[in-house]
Specification:
The chain is built from 12 helices and 12 strands. By secondary structure, it is an alpha/beta fold.
């Protein structure tokens, strides 16, 4: 029997990855996004390798895959993989942490700029009315000399810090319990040991930490309460880091000024019947469909790295 690979999340088109893997002799099975656990477990039962992006890889799937030699997240976060189950069977779990760090930071910063300059409602008004005049509704804000607060200072957070500080002359502060004052200073960031203190100072807050038990709902009702009413939240990390019900309430009530969101605890979104549905149609909210990573350049890097990972895994058996 050949080397079998199961790739989940077919809707995430990876034509180059699929082609290269097949050219290198893999038997590739590609499954749809949102596949149920039974179907995934059946497909993975004789798989040597699982490639996943969004679909949860549960303990049941891992335990039933008797030939499994590795799990590859073609992306960054590994919170959808049962790491304990993989460790119990000594199955390597790898991700691709550096293919899109600048890419994702650029997306976050584009959201920040768009919110600061009110680009989305301005564009909509121009498309509808042909022209608008400089009235109070359209008053924007500078980024220079404002304070950008970063929750998490990993690769993406550090890139965001550089763009905001060196690029736009913003003051950058950060909350990350795992980074020292010296390391943050080297990234151009003033460390804050207290999250509420950092939030209260920030004109823009951008989330860049991983999702785990400690960070789930890290930003909730109490945190929104200490933010400036003129502040905006950017989240390109994981939806569940933010208490989304509290976020919706804060936006609707005007407790904070706006939000740019690329990630959500339940995806896909919908204009109706979803927790986040009340955010549709608002001038002060930008919603994108978990696309921060999705550029031609990042996809080329991802395809190259995933191809190399597969070769290394195959060589180790």
């Amino acid at each position: 029997m050949g080397f079998k690979i199961v790739r989940t999340d077919r809707e995430f088109e990876c034509a180059t990855i699929d082609r290269v893997l097949r050219e290198r002799g893999a038997e590739l099975t590609v499954l749809a996004d949102g596949i149920d656990e039974d179907t995934l477990a059946e497909a993975a039962a004789d798989a040597d390798l699982i490639l996943m992006c969004y679909t949860p890889i549960t303990a049941r799937v891992i335990d039933g895959a008797k030939r499994l030699k590795g799990i590859v997240k073609y992306g960054v976060g590994i919170d959808a993989i049962d790491i304990g189950a993989a460790m119990a069977r000594r199955i390597p779990v790898v991700n691709v942490p550096d293919y899109g760090e600048e890419t994702v930071a650029e997306h976050a910063f584009a959201m920040l700029i768009a919110l600061a300059k009110k680009l989305m409602p301005l564009h909509g008004a121009m498309q509808t009315d042909g022209w608008v005049w400089p009235t109070e509704r359209w008053m924007a804000t500078d980024i220079a000399e404002k304070t950008v607060g970063l929750v998490g200072l990993g690769r993406i957070g550090a890139s965001m810090a550089r763009m905001a500080g060196a690029g736009f002359r913003a003051r950058v502060i950060g909350f990350d319990p795992f980074m020292s004052v010296e390391d943050m200073a080297q990234a151009g960031v003033e460390k804050r040991d207290n999250l509420h203190e950092m939030l209260a100072e920030s004109d823009f807050v951008s989330v860049h930490c991983v999702l785990n038990n400690a960070t789930r709902h890290l930003i909730g009702k109490a945190e929104f309460a200490v933010m400036k009413p003129t502040a905006a939240l950017i989240n390109v990390s994981r939806g569940a880091i933010v208490d989304e019900q509290a976020l919706v309430e804060s936006i609707v009530s005007g407790q904070i000024a706006g939000a740019g969101l690329d990630v959500f605890s339940r995806e896909p979104l919908s204009t109706t019947g979803h927790m986040m549905s009340p955010l549709y149609g608002r001038d002060n909210v930008i919603l994108t469909p978990h696309f921060a990573f999705y550029t031609d350049d990042a996809m080329r890097r991802l395809c190259l790295i995933v191809g190399v990972l597969r070769c290394e895994c195959n060589r180790s058996v």
